[in-house]
Structures are given as structure tokens and as C-alpha cells.
């Protein structure tokens, strides 16, 4: 199963006394990189939320945004934190000593200050469980989003692998003929230039040179890498890092094919292979 590292989820959960708003955004990253934007009253829940996300995701830069909107029904008792109000008064006086031209806090500013309004109907244990449930649902939605994106990427990679197999199948039968033609051309040039050279010695050198330019091993390894990529794409384990390594190996074989090329056909195939491999690598950079 292939998962993209890019995804988004947004959920809302309403209760009698408040509404929880959750957003999860994920993009690609080498490791699991978590960032939190939590409501002041929910900051103490960062650790359990971090554990929930870490248990579900392996890689990606993930931003978790969680807000709490409290509601106050007509029959609900609320209180003000008098100690916090006194602290606000003291802090305001100290700040105005440095900034005398600044305006004073309004009543609306004070009531919006985190912790000033105490809601008697909020149960901490209940809220913790509701937050955990909401985050768990959000992770399911995020993973579903990443799975859909991963399926699209898998299809693209398989299409490129199919094109690589076609190129290898096209060039492999040509290699004996191309090498023989090259040897014949080289033999003719050598005999014309060095007429006194022993023909048997020239033939031996040509055989050695032919072995150096033989790309059968590179084509075989390239075919093996294609099969391994397909196997990884069908597995359930995280695949991004392994696929990235295989792209490096495939690119190495394509480069070697180009450096050993003795004909236009193999040079062109080498270039086409490198283009296809680079297209796959761009997609694989975003796979978990």
C-alpha cells in the first residue's frame, strides 16, 4: 500500500458546551516532523496528540491545529477567575508605565483572555477523550487522503516502469549486432592505419574492448530493479526511502549504459531512461 506524504483533514465536533475544530495538514519531509497550533486551554494535550499521530504516521511534516469554541447557554453558570483578573490589572499597569500612550484593555479583551471565563460545565476528562477521538478520526481521514494520492502516484510510477521495460526489451537484442558492427569498423580503421600490426593481437584487443563496452549486465540489473520497485509498490511497509535508493541505482545503470554506448541507439535509450527515472524520483520524494 503506497501512501503519499501530502494530505488534509478537517473535522468539527460539537457538544452542549463547546465545539472542537481540528485541522491536519501534511506535506513531504524526510522524517516525521510535527507542529502544533493548539487553543490555549488545550496546550496540555499536546503530548497525547503527538503520541496518536506518531502511532499512525511514519514520515511527513504534519501541522495539527485544534481550536475550542465555548458556548454559554442561558441556564449555565460561569465564573470569572478573580486571581487572573488581578494579575491582568497589575500587568496592564506595568506595561503602561513603559507605554503610556497605549490604550487600556477593553472588557471584550479581558473576557477573551484565556482562562478568565471559567465554565463550570467543562469536564477535563471528558474533553480529553473527545479530543483524542476527534484526532483519531482526523488521522483516519488524513490517511485516506494520503492513500488516494498514493494510488495516483503508484499508477504513474508503474506507467514509467512499463516504458523502461519496453526500452530495455528494444535495446537488448541490438547489443550483439551493434558491438559486432563497432568491432568491424574499428578493425578496418586499425588495419588501414597500422598495416604492420599483428592482426591476431588486434583481434585480442578488440575482444577485451568489447567486454568493456558490454552493457548486458547493466540491462539485467536494470530489469531486476524494475521488478523490485514493483514488489515494494505492492507491499504494506513504508516504501519511500527504499524506492528512493532504487531510483539512485537505476540512474547509475542508465548512466553506465550511456558511458559505454557505441551507437546512437543506445545513447538515445540511455537519455530516455534517465528522463523516466527522474520523473519517478520526483513522485517518490513524496511517498511515505
Instruction: Please give the CATH class of the largest domain.
Output: Mainly Alpha
- Anisotropy-based shape: elongated
Multimeric state: single chain
Name the helix and strand elements from N-terminus to C-terminus, one letter apiece.
EEEHEEHHEHHHHHH
CATH topology of the largest domain: Butyryl-CoA Dehydrogenase, subunit A, domain 3
Largest sheet: 4 strands, mixed
Summed up, the helix count is 9
**Helical/strand content category:** alpha+beta
* Adjacency order of strands in the biggest sheet: 1-2-4-3
Beta-strand content estimate: 5-15%
Helix content bin: 55-70%
Cα-based radius of gyration, to the nearest Å: 33 Å
Summarize the structure.
The protein folds into three domains: 7-74 and 122-144, Ribosomal Protein S5, domain 2, CATH 3.30.230.10; 78-112, no CATH class; 147-284, Butyryl-CoA Dehydrogenase, subunit A, domain 3 (Up-down Bundle).
Amino acid at each position: 500500500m503506497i501512501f503519499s506524504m501530502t494530505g488534509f483533514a478537517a473535522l468539527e465536533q460539537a457538544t452542549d458546551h463547546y465545539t472542537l475544530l481540528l485541522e491536519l495538514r501534511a506535506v513531504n519531509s524526510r522524517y516525521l516532523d510535527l507542529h502544533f497550533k493548539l487553543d490555549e486551554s488545550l496546550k496540555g494535550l499536546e503530548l497525547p496528540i503527538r503520541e496518536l499521530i506518531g502511532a499512525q504516521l511514519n514520515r511527513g511534516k504534519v501541522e495539527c491545529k485544534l481550536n475550542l469554541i465555548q458556548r454559554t447557554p442561558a441556564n449555565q453558570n460561569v465564573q470569572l477567575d478573580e486571581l487572573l483578573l488581578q494579575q491582568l490589572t497589575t500587568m496592564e499597569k506595568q506595561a503602561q508605565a513603559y507605554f503610556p500612550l497605549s490604550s487600556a484593555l477593553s472588557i471584550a479583551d479581558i473576557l477573551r483572555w484565556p482562562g478568565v471565563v471559567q465554565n463550570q460545565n467543562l469536564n477535563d476528562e471528558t474533553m480529553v477523550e473527545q479530543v483524542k477521538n476527534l484526532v483519531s478520526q482526523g488521522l483516519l481521514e488524513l490517511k485516506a487522503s494520503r492513500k488516494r494520492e498514493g494510488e495516483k502516484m503508484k499508477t504513474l510510477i508503474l506507467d514509467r516502469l512499463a516504458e523502461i521495460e519496453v526500452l530495455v526489451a528494444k535495446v537488448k537484442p541490438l547489443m550483439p549486432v551493434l558491438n559486432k558492427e563497432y568491432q568491424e569498423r574499428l578493425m578496418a580503421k586499425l588495419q588501414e592505419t597500422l598495416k604492420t600490426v599483428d592482426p591476431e593481437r588486434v583481434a585480442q584487443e578488440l575482444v577485451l574492448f568489447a567486454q568493456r563496452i558490454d552493457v548486458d549486465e547493466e540491462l539485467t540489473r536494470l530489469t531486476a530493479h524494475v521488478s523490485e520497485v514493483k514488489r515494494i509498490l505492492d507491499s504494506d511497509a513504508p516504501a519511500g526511502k527504499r524506492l528512493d535508493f532504487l531510483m539512485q541505482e537505476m540512474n547509475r545503470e542508465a548512466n553506465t549504459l550511456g558511458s559505454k554506448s557505441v551507437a546512437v541507439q543506445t545513447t538515445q535509450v540511455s537519455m530516455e531512461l534517465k528522463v523516466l527515472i527522474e520523473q519517478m524520483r520526483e513522485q517518490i520524494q513524496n511517498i511515505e
